[in-house]
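Recall the central idea of this unit: under ordinary conditions, the amino acid sequence of a chain determines the structure it adopts. In this exercise we apply that idea directly, starting from the sequence alone.
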Amino acid sequence: MRRFSGVLLGLLLVLVVSGVALAEGSWTSFLSGVNRDFNSRTWYDGNTDHNATQVRFDTCRDDVANGTSDWVVVRLWRHAGIFPPYQVGNDKTLDCYVSDTKGWGEMIGGEDFHWQIRDFSGGGGGNRLDVDWLKTFY
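Accordingly, the structure predicted from this sequence is:
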């Protein structure tokens, strides 16, 4: 019975581990007092895993007391060698008063990327944005 349990546990472990998508990379951070056009750090996505590029923002707030309707618009930029960066896909709106994740799909070919805050709730008039925790997956 002990041998059967070990084999069963081993098979279960193989199924669980093989079912988990392992991202090529990720990084976490936070934002404090940023405004429109803030640029994230730059990272390299070599597309070795075929996973989507995504961002997750947890607990975003701005200077305007707009309750649970805080949101952020994020744009993904791709760096193309000596050429200026260019926009990838459409801007993504994260409803991040609590938490939201959005993505741009799989990035083909290896290049550098960064995202940019394009707008946020209460983004005018010198208001600032805070995000308690964020994660970029690639």
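The first strand starts at residue 26 and ends at 34.
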